[in-house]
């Protein structure tokens, strides 16, 4: 998508600190980290939000979760733990309309909203 900041990151038009990349998935550091480890994991295919996933896209969610689990091991945060968040739409405060998973870790994270 032309004006999508994450598509520009994928194309290398905007710099990012990549931590993982393959043909379909990219992971890079969030520019405004909310925790010592704050990584965004995105599909390279432009998908606006969770609600825009088509049947053939759900395989990407599996791949994203595998990337997150591998990163957790690489970054040695399996024991301390981590949080995965996806904001979808206005009430969740989704700012970038390119599906992304936040991976947060490296400190005791703030209050849970659910649970
Ligand atoms: P959300 O509120 O879930 O849409 O999250 C968007 C996230 O993208 C925020 O945490 C921003 O800090 C992050 N972000 C926006 N622009 C960039 C960028 N150029 N590089 C890295 N992260 C970004
Ligand atoms: Zn995009």
What key attributes describe this structure?
HIT family, subunit A; binds zinc ion; 115 residues; alpha+beta; binds adenosine monophosphate; five-stranded antiparallel sheet; globular
Could you describe the 3D structure shown?
The protein has two helices and five strands; from the N terminus they run αβββαββ. The protein has helices at residues 5-11, 58-74; strands spanning 18-21, 25-29, 37-43, 83-85, 101-105. A five-stranded antiparallel β-sheet has the order 1-2-3-5-4, covered by helices on one side. The radius of gyration is 14 Å and the shape is globular. The mean pLDDT is 96. It has one domain (5-105): HIT-like (HIT family, subunit A, 2-Layer Sandwich). A hairpin with a 7-residue loop joins β2 (25-29) and β3. The chain starts with a helix and ends in a 10-residue tail after the last strand. The longest helix has 17 residues, at 58-74. It has 115 residues and is α+β, with helices and mostly antiparallel strands. The structure holds adenosine monophosphate and zinc ion. Zinc ion binds at residues 1, 4, 6-7, 46, 98.
